[in-house]
Structures are given as structure tokens and as C-alpha cells.
Design a protein that fits this description.
The chain has 170 residues and is mainly alpha-helical. It is built from six helices and no strands. Helix 1 packs antiparallel against helix 4 and helix 3 packs parallel to helix 6.
């Protein structure tokens, strides 16, 4: 079973922040004022790094964020398993229709092999295995962006706490 991590992340932010208009993109979700320079599409970690380094304000539930990061790790593991199944199960060694002596049958076999793993005129990213490569890369980038935001939030929160403690406030 897979989970929509973007929806969980949005719900987590919404539960820890004042009511705001519904965000249409993840950039609007984490940076509604547009303070950070948006990176190329799909580069969530770079976006979060840019946002944090640019002085963007973060408000979150650290334990909830850790749970979402763990869910991302689980989702990546599931995608890797599906990718391995696609690599092994979708690549036919033979179709059993005379591909050794009948050229159209050999062409059909080759077509299915390329759809499974890429090759020939089919780009890797258009194959089943390549599709999972793209999904794994996206979820990994998303997870890394969440981790960047969490690390920045925890670091800022810890620094504030030590400053308060140094002046005798708890």
C-alpha cells in the first residue's frame, strides 16, 4: 500500500500553521509569500535549502515530520521492490512464438524487452524500469527536502532554547 506523501505533508503543515488559502503546488505550500527562488521542477531538496538559507520561516511538528520522512523511506523501498519486479518479471527471454526463425516474432520480443528495461529506440525513462527510476528519484528528493527543513527547524529551535536558557528563562 502506498501513501500520498504530499497530502500528508500538506496536512502536517496546515495543522501547525494558521489557516491560509489552499496551496496549488508544493512551492506555494512551503513558501506562500514566494521568498525563495524556485529550483527546477522536481528539485524539492534544493528548494527547501534555498528557502531555509534565504531566511524563510518554518513552523512544523518535528515528530510528525519524522513520521512522514519514515513513510518516504518506506515508499522508496516499495518502489525499489516494484522496480526489481519490473526488471525481472516484465523482461521476456522468449515469447514461444518462433522468434528464432521468424523475424516479426523476434521484433516483437525485442519490443517487449525494450519496454521492460529500455533500449533500442525507446529511452530508458520510458521503460518500466526507467519509470521507477524517476519515481524513486522524485520521492528521494522530496524526502531529502523534508529532512533539510526538519534539520533547519530543529537547529533553530535548539539555538533559541539555549539562548533562553543562558539568560535564565525556561
Amino acid at each position: 500500500m502506498t501513501t500520498n506523501f504530499a497530502d500528508q505533508y500538506g496536512a502536517l503543515l496546515a495543522s501547525s500553521a494558521p489557516a491560509a488559502p489552499v496551496a496549488q503546488t508544493w512551492q506555494e505550500l512551503v513558501d506562500p509569500a514566494g521568498l525563495a527562488d524556485a529550483p527546477p521542477v522536481g528539485d524539492f531538496k534544493a528548494y527547501m535549502t534555498s528557502y531555509v538559507e534565504g531566511g524563510g520561516q518554518l513552523s512544523m511538528d518535528p515528530e510528525g515530520m519524522k513520521g512522514i520522512i519514515a513513510d518516504c523511506d518506506k515508499h522508496i523501498d516499495e518502489l525499489v521492490q516494484l522496480q526489481q519486479r519490473a526488471y525481472e518479471d516484465l523482461y521476456p527471454e522468449t515469447l514461444g512464438i518462433g522468434e528464432d526463425g521468424f523475424p516479426p516474432a523476434k521484433q516483437l520480443l525485442t519490443k517487449y524487452q525494450h519496454k521492460a528495461r529500455g533500449g533500442g529506440s525507446l529511452p530508458h525513462h520510458s521503460s518500466a524500469v526507467g519509470y521507477f527510476d524517476g519515481l524513486i528519484a522524485w520521492v528521494t528528493d522530496f524526502r531529502d527536502g523534508l529532512q533539510t527543513a526538519l534539520d533547519a527547524y530543529v537547529g533553530t529551535d535548539g539555538g533559541t532554547e539555549s539562548r533562553f536558557n543562558s539568560i535564565g528563562l525556561e
